[in-house]
Amino acid sequence: MAILTCMDPRVGPDFVPGFERVTSIIRNAGGVVTDDVVRSLMVSNEFFGVKEFLIINHTDCAMLKFTDPELQGRLGKKYGKEAGAMKFYSFSSLEQNVKDQVQKVKSHPVVPKDIMVYGLIYDVETRELSRPST
Predict the structure, then answer these.
(1) How far, CA to CA in Å, does 61 sit from each of 32, 38, 49, 124?
(2) Cβ distance 30 to 89 under 8 Å?
């Protein structure tokens, strides 16, 4: 199994049931699927035999607390540099983001259709995993 999750230190490998099956843990802000994430997932698949991809987002994520334009403007003012072209992939719904990221992986042309891809939400207060509502 390969896991994509957030870089937030409150989200650690100790909460994942069956962690002994995890081959790769990929982290970025928000647990967002980018080309680099797909690259890492496919290396895990091709060279380590990974057949399951799990995407875990979490409650109280910083990516829920701003929009891309807000952060771009904030950084521009703070550092005097244009940040308008930079994508941060903020999101306003945790459940929808998990669903969107799962769909991005499933629909990516290089990801084999026999790879199991699913998503979960980790509650940072209760330390419980749940599925996004349907």
Answers:
(1) 12, 22, 31, 9
(2) yes
pTM: 0.91
Residues 6+ apart with CB under 8 A from 93: none
Domain map (residue ranges) of the chain: 2-61+93-130
Is CATH 3.40.1050.10 the right assignment for the domain spanning 2-61+93-130? yes
pLDDT in tens, 21-30: 678 999 999 9
Cα–Cα dist 61/8, whole Å:
8
Q: Is 122 exposed, middle or buried, given 0-12, 13-18 or 19+ CB atoms closer than 10 A?
A: buried
**What letter represents residue 66's amino acid?**
F
Question: For residues 16 and 3, is the Cβ–Cβ distance under 8 A?
Answer: yes
